[in-house]
């Protein structure tokens, strides 16, 4: 007879000790984290489209294209892992690969004037902003959640239910802004490409 009352009593105690609030705050943080993942994947996809555009003018820059492909693959793996530290590291690596791709584009005046290339860069900038907003939203949600489960008596409920502190998404400085083509250089002259491929003002899209 006594055992019959234990389950309702335990449930009432957990509700009184913040169980529902813990679940709600955890779901909010999870939703914000998912937005980071969505935007990181979108950034990776846009960079893939950017590579395809650059290839139309600079097919021989294979080392740069391979580096971007490998970095994009790591972003996909990191997003699937759900680990903020891995996502930050992979995104930083992709930013470095993107910088090398943009450096190649500097040597191709016709590429710098390509409308698709320009549009993709604008979309990348917008995605960078959305990543920053999503990161801020997640970190705020994670901070509120972490602070709540450390307080008494919620810390007892967290211990019983296995609720763990959430890791923050601390983006490194290198991942903060996508590099862009410098349009201050003359577009009527062709530069030499870093791989020794010679002049490259020609090579219109096929």
Protein model, in words:
The protein is mainly α and 206 residues long. The chain has 7 helices and no strands. The longest helix has 37 residues, at 19-55. The radius of gyration is 24 Å and the shape is elongated. Residues 5-14 and 183-206 have low confidence and may be disordered.
| Helix share bin | 55-70%
Radius of gyration based on Cα positions:
24 Å
Count of strand segments? 0
* H and E string: HHHHHHH
- Tell me the overall shape: elongated
Q: Roughly what is the average pLDDT, rounded to an integer?
A: 82
Query: Biggest β-sheet: count, sense, barrel?
Result: none
Low-confidence stretches: 5-14, 183-206
How does the helix and strand content classify structurally? mainly alpha
**Percent range for β-strand residues:** under 5%
Q: How far is the N terminus from the C terminus?
A: 82 Å
Number of helices: 7
Write a concise keyword list for the protein shown above.
disordered C terminus, elongated, 206 residues, 0% strand, mainly alpha, single chain
